[in-house]
Amino acid sequence: MASTSQSIPVNRQALLGAGFALLAAVGFSAKAILVKLAYVDAVDAVTLLALRMVFSVPVFLAVALWSRANKHAALLEKRDWLAVLALGLVGYYLSSLLDFSGLQYITAGLERLILFLYPTMVVILSAVIFKHAIGRRELIALALSYAGIALVFLHDVSISQKSIVLGAALVFASTLTYSAYLIGAGHAIARIGATRFTAYAMVVASTATLLQFVVTHPVSALQLPLRVYELGIAMAIFSTVLPVFMLSAGIRLIGSGHTSLIGSIGPVATIYLAHVFLNEAVSALQIAGSLLVLAGVLTISLSNK
């Protein structure tokens, strides 16, 4: 009887963790859909990113202040603050800016697949920076992933999308900067804590984004249709704040390995949502490319478990 009673909370914990991981993946995937919907109106990437940050930063600022007031939290050293500043600028500010800029030119489905390449880029960057050897399994995963991206790229070119090369390059650069952030964030998160580090880094990124908007845009740029503000609020709540904390909860309940595997539903969710809300075409070529990318990334993820 004891073993049976103990299995109930374990199963409930696993289900809850899987639910958080799934909702986080769908929330992050919906970001591209909301951005594309906002671009229907005359709004640029910097303004839209500023709206996302201004609506989400109060939550992260509150978490940052709460964590700082926690008497059990360790005091941050100078190197910790420098890490938060540098990684916040690279991983959240620059990466988001490149991503939003790229979404002006490519489909939401292609954008999410390129972003999903980050585990393969971590492998490549680790090989270049730290001289880590790339094994046969990793090489196969890389070949599968980038062959899949090539197929989806060909699909988008076939429907005569303008500036697709520029858009893909911007999103690829976004994925590269995010991968560099992941490599550098490991030690900082271990010292600072995941929640506190994320909150601090998001405050840094939000500050940089808002400063860029103030310097480069007049106040009249905020004279936007109400629907753009509504999309900005939705982006802040459902594709920024909630997914960040649900992802952390999922990792705490079921571990990073299972959470990342559930997160692989992200590209599929984006393609489906883009078809429903943006009328983006779904072809056999796109499905085949998506499956190749998923196979490659899962191969990398499973080899690191």
What's the quick description here?
This protein has eleven helices and no strands.
Mind explaining what this structure looks like?
The protein contains 11 helices and no strands. The chain is mainly α and 305 residues long. The longest helix has 37 residues, at 2-38. The radius of gyration is 20 Å and the shape is globular. Mean pLDDT is 87; it is low at 1-8. Helix 5 crosses helix 7 and helix 6 (136-158) packs antiparallel against helix 11 (284-303). It has one domain. Helices cover 83% and strands 0% of the residues.
Question: What key phrases describe this protein's structure?
Answer:
83% helix; single chain; globular; 11 helices
Q: How many structural domains can be distinguished in the coordinates? A: 1
SSE succession: HHHHHHHHHHH
Terminal Cα separation, in Å? 33 Å
Principal-axis shape:
globular
Q: Unreliable stretches, pLDDT < 50, 5 or more residues? A: 1-8
- The structural class is mainly alpha
Largest sheet: none
Query: Roughly what percent helix?
Result: over 70%
